[in-house]
Design a protein that fits this description.
Blueprint lengths: L3 H12 L2 H6 L7 H6 L2 H14 L4 H14 L5 H5 L3 H6 L10 H17 L6 H7 L5 H11 L7 H9 L8 H9 L10 H18 L3 H10 L3
Helix pairs in contact: 1-14, 4-5, 4-8, 4-11, 12-14
Length: 222
């Protein structure tokens, strides 16, 4: 397997120096930081990721204060108790993005998060306790528990929330192919496990979090 130092040096060369490269690297939250964030925060971030999917992120972000208002600050209990009539009324609110499936997903995910709290004291504990070396299994668990968190949405939600994860963007996939980890896009369970094992090894080798590993991979190619 390619030594990660080689990938790092390629990314360094392409970005133009240590200072610029360092500024591009994400920093994950610690386990304690994840635990201390409210469930309202996680529902808001999860919902923002779902609304961002397929849309310009800056447009969604500009409207997010309106979303916070109509969804009662993303209070878990308040949102899960919203009636169909309340949700349907949002289809006439020009301040938000009027997508019925995504609007309904907010309530469904509030309910799913409420059910999760029967297993964990809060959403932060659920994320903090999940071992990083099994992160692809967390992607699958998010997909099974929550609505519209399949594909890349689960990993992107984790990145937005601060949980350390790698991403399989098209640039990361191209880099993984270039550096000989995979031959094609890792769509299946076995292929994703190959990537997970490789990322784990590079993370241990470089003493870097997974989010920085995937960013450095992306920066190591054109």
């Amino acid at each position: 397997m390619t030594a990660f130092q080689m990938i790092y040096e390629e990314a360094l060369l392409r970005t133009g120096g240590e200072t610029i490269l360092k500024s591009k690297l994400p920093v994950p939250k610690s386990r304690d930081e994840l635990r201390n964030l409210s469930d309202h925060y996680y529902l808001s971030v999860m919902s923002r990721r779902i609304f961002r999917a397929g849309l310009k992120h800056s447009m969604v972000d500009a409207k997010w204060p309106a979303f916070e208002k109509v969804f009662h600050g993303f209070d878990i209990d308040r949102v899960r108790m919203m009636s169909d009539e309340e949700l349907e009324s949002l289809l006439h609110d020009r301040g938000i993005i009027r997508h019925w499936g995504k609007i309904r997903a907010v309530r469904e995910n509030a309910q799913s998060m409420h059910e999760l709290l029967n297993e964990k004291s809060n959403m932060g504990d659920y994320l903090a306790d999940w071992p990083g070396e099994l992160i692809v299994e967390l992607w699958d668990d998010l997909k099974d528990r929550f609505t519209q968190l399949g594909g890349n949405s689960g990993p992107y939600f984790l990145r937005m929330a601060g949980k350390d994860t790698f991403l399989l963007t098209r640039f990361v996939v191209r880099a993984l192919i270039r550096w000989g980890v995979i031959e094609t896009e890792p769509g299946g369970v076995k292929a994703r496990q190959v990537v997970q094992n490789c990322i784990n090894q590079w993370s241990e080798e470089s003493r870097r979090p997974m989010c920085q590993i995937s960013m450095l991979l992306a920066l190591s190619i054109d």
